[in-house]
């Protein structure tokens, strides 16, 4: 079972969109996937067409010491081969994690039953800030996929993830893929920023995937609770190119 975090310390880079597309794409390739939504905005759930009205139990119930809920009671079938573990009360979860003495073991304990559910991939959509939840996620996962919006501020912020890992005394090699996102190949600025990104990681073989072009249909799909594989063939092809790289590296 491969455990992957979708993470960037900067908001607005399309992180939840990438998490959803990768999760559904892997499921369409025949892998059994669970997407764990640990972003306070719940965008991953919404982009799959799942709202609070569709679930009663969430990740919060797993950490609430007053609750006696099993992990399987919190999981929703989102698509064929793709399940979702939604969240609620994200601030309370974060506060509870601050009370844990071994943050490196928290998710191994809370999500231990996943090992017996035959999942091939656990994909975790993380919030954009440094939080105790993200500390726990980074300790738990094997790999990190970092979407980076192809614009100057986002590209130059890449180093902050390495600083974050260093602060947690975790290996920088956990960063397995960088996905240039929202790329507008028509503009000189986007081309220059993509080149800068490639130069920044030129010592890491195959870490940068083909870019995901900026497309209105990707945004439209999310608003409709659909993935690109259900809505836009061209965007789906781009994400399949990313998935090919992902499966080659860690699948």
Automatic annotation (TrEMBL):
Q: Which CDD domains match?
A: ParAB_family
**In which domain of life is the source organism classified?**
Bacteria
Q: Which residues form the AAA domain?
A: 1-168
The root-end lineage is:
Bacteria, Bacillati, Bacillota, Clostridia, Eubacteriales
Name the Pfam families for this protein: AAA_31 (PF13614)
Q: Which residues cross the membrane?
A: none
Concerning SUPFAM superfamilies, the annotation shows: P-loop containing nucleoside triphosphate hydrolases (SSF52540)
The protein here is known as: Chromosome partitioning protein
């Amino acid at each position: 079972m491969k455990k992957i975090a979708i993470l960037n310390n900067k908001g607005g880079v399309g992180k939840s969109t990438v998490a959803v597309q990768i999760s559904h794409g892997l499921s369409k390739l025949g892998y059994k996937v669970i997407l764990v939504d640990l972003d306070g905005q719940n965008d991953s759930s919404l982009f799959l067409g799942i709202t609070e009205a569709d679930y009663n139990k969430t990740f919060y119930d797993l950490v609430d010491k007053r609750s006696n809920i099993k992990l399987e009671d919190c999981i929703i079938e989102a698509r064929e081969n793709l399940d979702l573990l939604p969240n609620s009360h994200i601030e309370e979860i974060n506060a509870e994690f601050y009370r844990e003495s071994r943050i490196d073991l928290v998710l191994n304990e809370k999500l231990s039953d996943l090992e017996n559910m035959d999942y091939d991939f656990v994909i975790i959509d993380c919030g954009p800030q440094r939080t105790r939840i993200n500390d726990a996620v980074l300790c738990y996962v094997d790999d990190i996929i970092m979407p980076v919006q192809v614009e100057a501020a986002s590209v130059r912020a890449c180093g902050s993830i390495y600083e974050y890992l260093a602060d947690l005394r975790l290996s920088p090699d956990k960063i397995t893929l960088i996905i240039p996102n929202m790329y507008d190949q028509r503009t000189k600025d986007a081309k220059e920023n993509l080149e800068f990104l490639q130069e920044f990681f030129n010592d890491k073989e195959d870490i940068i995937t083909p870019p995901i072009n900026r497309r209105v249909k990707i945004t439209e799909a999310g608003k409709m609770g659909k993935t690109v594989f259900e809505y836009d063939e061209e965007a789906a092809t781009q994400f399949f190119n990313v998935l090919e790289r992902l499966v080659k590296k860690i699948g």
